Amino acid sequence: MSTPPNTAVQVVIGAGSIGQAIARRTGAGKHVLLADSNETTLQEARTALEDAGHTVTTQRVDVSDRASVHALARAAADLGDVVQVVSTAGVSPVQAPAEAVLAVDVYGTAVVLEEFGKVIAPGGAGVHISSMAGHMPRRWTPGRRTRWPSPRSRSCSRCRSSHPTRCRTPAPPTPSPSSQPPARAGRRRPLG
Description:
With 192 residues, this protein is an alpha/beta fold. The chain has helices spanning 17-26, 39-51, 66-79, 98-117; strands spanning 8-13, 31-36, 55-60, 81-87, 120-128.
């Protein structure tokens, strides 16, 4: 099957539930190039999206490997005008060791941005979606001491000093509407 050269292409990297939801919602009328490191997930996502009426092509990719991402970018450009690039690929500290988290979440994101920056159509857009998993505490292991930040190590937003209890410094007064500077020309004023 040949694709017309003026086809709009949406690239979704990461065929999990977030990637599938994005492709389902924003892929209408576009050729969706779905990429993932897991072949089983990739084929299940392809079936689900094709059943929903989308035109889908799949390709296995490892975002921590520049050659793999480069091949994906070339494949996307061969399908048509790359108008959207969505990357949902990522691993959390609970899923993988620190080296893999850095390789996928940090280096992989940079490689995707660099490689697709070379092929994206004028006016195209790219977005990288991540989760709060990067802020999750490490897994607790019996026998290992976990160092949590001390409440004394943080400074108070009111008085800028360090204290472990609730700050008793009065909050600065809230400016009244009459003491606020007048709105600049061209800016809309709030209603009410």
